[in-house]
């Protein structure tokens, strides 16, 4: 009787992709980039927690993920004090538009001038992180094994 229970995957089959997704996110979210001619940012994925899985229902594949990411960054500009901080993205889930994810930039104690700290917060924005997450999502959609 059990062999007839899920004929043609009509109900669902689920596969965990967390072993691929978590290191892939860490890899993509650890980088160095020039923001301007003189300003460089170094980002490290300090903590990436969550899960990614795909399920097949009625012969259609659905991708799902739910992550919390903490990134550390260092903003370097010649002649200026180093500015360090963190970026928290929580939750990073499949059922919301990326632009709606919770996003928090915190600056650690810095000797930099207030205008430089404000500039740092403006430079450390979704524009440098979301394209990397989009690469992850594109690769994840194609991943089947």
Automatic annotation (TrEMBL):
GO biological process, one term: protein folding
Pfam families (UniProt xref): Aha1_N (PF09229)
Protein name: Activator of Hsp90 ATPase
Sequence ranges assigned to domain Activator of Hsp90 ATPase AHSA1-like N-terminal in this UniProt record: 14-145
A GO term for molecular function: protein-folding chaperone binding
Organism: Hexamita inflata
SMART domains, A to Z: Aha1_N (SM01000)
CC annotations in GO: cytosol
Domain of life: Eukaryota
Cross-referenced InterPro entries: Aha1, AHSA1-like_N
Transmembrane segments: none
Family: Belongs to the AHA1 family.
């Amino acid at each position: 009787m059990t062999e007839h229970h899920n004929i043609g995957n009509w109900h669902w089959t689920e596969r965990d992709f967390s072993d691929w997704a978590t290191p892939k996110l860490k890899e993509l979210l650890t980088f160095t980039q020039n923001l301007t001619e003189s300003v460089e940012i170094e980002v490290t994925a300090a903590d990436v927690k969550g899960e990614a899985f795909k399920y097949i229902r009625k012969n259609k594949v659905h991708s799902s993920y739910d992550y919390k990411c903490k990134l550390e960054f260092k903003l370097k500009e010649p002649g200026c004090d180093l500015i360090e901080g963190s970026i928290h993205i929580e939750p990073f889930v499949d059922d919301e538009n990326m632009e709606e994810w919770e996003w928090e930039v915190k600056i650690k104690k810095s000797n930099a001038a207030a205008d430089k700290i404000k500039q740092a917060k403006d430079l450390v924005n979704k524009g440098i992180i979301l394209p990397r997450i989009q690469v992850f999502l594109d690769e994840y959609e194609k991943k089947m094994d």
